[in-house]
């Protein structure tokens, strides 16, 4: 699912068609690709956290493209990968036929390697084992005399590691001159570079989610049901914390409040929902004095009257971590330890054991957004094949996750009710009116 979504995104955003619209304009597509890379490199070199995030995304994209080249049909002999290595001057030490035959039993013992028929035509390369640590950690290569013996099909890991090292060095160098460039270009591109990491213009961010009848879905009456049905784990945890403690700390109020606003909850419904919870432990006067202003400010009705946008996944991941037990903001995949996250996934009955293991494996590898996207995949079976469900922003923005989930359940006829009768009943049952 992830590969197909990434292919679709690349085709949509980084591919320019030729004049007849049937072929790809390779030259123009390369220009867009290169320009976008260096713009993002300039914007994301400023801090260690930004560099780390950008490095992870670019390396993931690079590996995806390299594996796509490697997997293309070229008579099953990896011609495309071999051509890539030659074109980019990768000087790899190819193992001779005699040496390969002498190591046959040892090379054949590596899990997932070529079968006896394929072994005869498989090329092996000898590289210092320090360059193949990923393969060594997975026992996917043979080690002897300080060298790793790697089949051509697994060279992708070696190339990706070199790409990562090179890009990491380039980002560090760029960080050293960013201040001067931003100052010199303050009037032109300075603000763009400084604010790019906090902006999100993809699907789902500031758009209201509507039901089948065209009415906005999210209200004080339906938020509980929608939190369980369609909110990503980060927002579910904020909602659960609010329902349990009847209060959220400042960062939690910002993260959750902007999410609710972006999902279409009106100022009135937002105020009603928070008032309903907060006044379980305080008076209405205290709520109005201490918290109502902040909600109005979030909706652009106070202060600078600015239109604040919901936090995207990167901002949540790179933000201040929550203090255990008292704060509920942040990204569970990033900020929860393995034991707590595993227990939470089990408690919520997210998929089966295999599904939860797959999510945890992504979390442990630092692929927090992919873990979140996998969560969506598990809880929304065959969502890709459902017409009208836009999956582009899933894993990149909580609002896109929510919007896609609501659309998915809309198509299934299971979206939470938004009737006025239900709203009145819920509000009355909570003692608000």
How are the SSEs placed, and which strands pair?
Elements: H1 2-13, H2 26-43, H3 48-71, H4 79-87, E1 93-94, H5 97-102, H6 104-108, H7 116-119, E2 124-128, H8 133-137, E3 142-144, E4 147-151, H9 155-184, H10 190-195, H11 223-230, H12 233-245, H13 250-262, H14 267-278, H15 284-290, H16 292-298, H17 313-318, H18 332-335, H19 338-347, H20 353-364, H21 368-379, H22 398-412, H23 420-429
Antiparallel strand pairs: 1-2, 2-4, 3-4
Helix pairs in contact: 3-9, 19-20, 20-21
Question: How is this structure best described in words?
Answer:
The protein has helices at residues 2-13, 26-43, 48-71, 79-87, 97-102, 104-108, 116-119, 133-137, 155-184, 190-195, 223-230, 233-245, 250-262, 267-278, 284-290, 292-298, 313-318, 332-335, 338-347, 353-364, 368-379, 398-412, 420-429, and strands at residues 93-94, 124-128, 142-144, 147-151. It is mainly α. The chain has a domain at 223-429. It has a 4-stranded antiparallel β-sheet, with no helix packed on it. Helix 3 packs across helix 9, helix 19 (338-347) runs antiparallel to helix 20 and helix 20 (353-364) runs antiparallel to helix 21. The protein is globular, with a radius of gyration of 26 Å. The two termini are 47 Å apart. Residues 417-433 have low confidence and may be disordered.
